[in-house]
Write a structure and sequence with these properties.
mainly beta, Immunoglobulin-like, 2 domains, 11-stranded mixed beta sheet, 5-stranded antiparallel beta sheet, 22 strands
């Protein structure tokens, strides 16, 4: 049954007649980070919820996760007083019953670290894993995940996609999307979603392809401002001209008669 998400300055107003929708964002292309930070905005409202940071090198270095001061956001870790982020497996539960949550607005936690005292962490060897998140939207907590792979040979990480549950205090399965589960552990599996967004910066065009008729497509900047809107498409393929759009990160929202899905793209002019 159809559900529509109406973005108001990127606060999602939900109108639905059946079950809640998981909002999924594909980082397209995957973002690889070395000696820098990636600001993760799980609900795409223009505010950073968590930061993933890679610093150092294979001798002394780490990949960590924290939240902005005062945010009261949490990351799922491996033990009560632990310092390492759990690498959740696909379909693993992320919710109130998950064992250990660490509030990260005061101290960071580690995906992987190496130094004079040795090495440790659950994200190793460039294998995909899911970071579990608990974060505030308004006055309620929501649960989400991000798919991350850490390259321990050069102390970098790659973030591939992320999602969150729109219903407050409701668990989400690691890797869950509106239409199944993403691939895991470098297997030759495809994203269960049948919505594909391809960005060609040279031709200044974005192509959207899906197995269902597309109702509409919206493009938003990171502040939540809608910069392009295409309605009444009613076709399985749509090509969008990006000429004149400033270089930067954008969210392509694709609406079909079955679901709404977000894809993150990087436009270079």
């Amino acid at each position: 049954m159809k559900k529509i998400l109406i973005p108001l300055a990127f606060s999602w107003l939900e109108v639905f007649t059946c079950q809640a929708l998981i909002v999924y964002t594909d980082v397209n292309p995957d973002a690889t980070v070395n000696n820098a930070a990636y600001n993760l905005d799980l609900d795409n409202n223009g505010t950073t919820d968590f930061s993933l940071t890679a610093l150092g090198n294979v001798t002394v270095g780490w990949v960590s996760c924290d939240a902005s001061a005062g945010s009261l956001n949490y990351v799922l870790i491996d033990s009560q007083n632990g310092q390492y982020v759990v690498s959740n497996s696909s379909n693993g539960n992320i919710g109130a019953s998950s064992a250990y949550w660490h509030q990260t607005d005061s101290t960071n936690v580690l995906l992987y670290a190496t130094g004079l005292g040795g090495s440790g962490g659950w994200f190793t060897n460039s294998y995909d894993g899911y970071v579990g998140f608990k974060f505030y939207i308004g006055a309620s907590y929501h649960y989400g995940w991000a798919r991350v792979a850490v390259n321990t040979s050069n102390m970098s990480f790659t973030i591939k996609d992320y999602a969150y549950e729109t219903v407050a205090n409701t668990a989400i399965a690691a890797g869950a999307t509106p239409n199944g589960f993403v691939g895991i552990d470098n297997e030759a599996t495809e994203l269960a979603s049948t919505i594909k967004v391809t960005n060609n910066n040279q031709l200044k065009k974005v192509t959207v392809l899906t197995d269902k008729n597309i109702s509409e497509i919206n493009i938003y900047d990171v502040s939540g401002r809608r910069i392009k809107e295409i309605k009444s498409i009613e076709a399985k393929e749509s090509i969008i001209d990006t000429y004149g759009i400033l270089s930067g990160t954008y969210i392509v929202q694709v609406v079909t008669n079955e679901r709404v899905e977000n894809k993150k793209i990087f436009i270079v002019q």
